[in-house]
């Protein structure tokens, strides 16, 4: 979406908002390639085709830049609706307690997002390895909400007698583990899909079935 906006607006006529998005996307791309420690604001400015002063005009501090990255990805609490809250198909499945549809849609949505934004995924990996504050912020502002969202559904279905007794967060971790490991393989280690070459639809269906096979009463 960002790239589409930027390519449709000539650099000479770029508005302040689009310029800010351009700098932000450039920062994400460079951070994902070199990590935070290996990327300077001068390099971000050079790659974006602006002055370093322009970078600081839009992002006065690095902390503001990191916050903007999470904001733009819809990961900050209170800035956007939680992504799955806007998925009407998923919300309908939750209301109908259609377990297969619930976990399929969660998995399919997550896998698509991983595939569509490899730079952001790599950036998160770098931030974790470098013990950068962005990893901690992403975990507390987004991942904790993922655990609450999926864990809340599992807890409700336990009350219904549909799922066996267990810590819902263990099930969430197992489910997310399948999704993240699959995406990691595709993004980092098995780009040509030599080990496993399946569509996101097929992967989501199988991962949902595996999870449900383990937690149903």
Structure description:
The chain is an all-alpha fold and 217 residues long. It has two domains: 71 residues, Tetracycline Repressor, domain 2, CATH 1.10.357.10; 133 residues, Orthogonal Bundle (Tetracycline Repressor, domain 2), CATH 1.10.357. Helix content is 71%, strand content 0%. It has eleven helices and no strands. The longest helix is centred in the C-terminal third of the chain and has 27 residues. It is elongated, with a radius of gyration of 20 Å.
Rg, nearest Å: 20 Å
Helix content: over 70%
Alpha plus pi helix count: 11
How is the quaternary structure best described?
single chain
Helix/strand layout:
Elements: H1 2-7, H2 16-34, H3 41-48, H4 52-58, H5 62-72, H6 88-96, H7 99-116, H8 118-129, H9 133-159, H10 168-189, H11 200-215
Helix pairs in contact: 2-3, 2-8, 3-4, 6-7, 7-10, 7-11, 8-9, 9-10, 10-11
Q: Briefly, what is this?
A:
The chain has helices spanning 2-7, 16-34, 41-48, 52-58, 62-72, 88-96, 99-116, 118-129, 133-159, 168-189, 200-215.
Task: Fill in the keyword field for this structure.
217 residues, mainly alpha, Tetracycline Repressor, domain 2, 11 helices, 0% strand, elongated
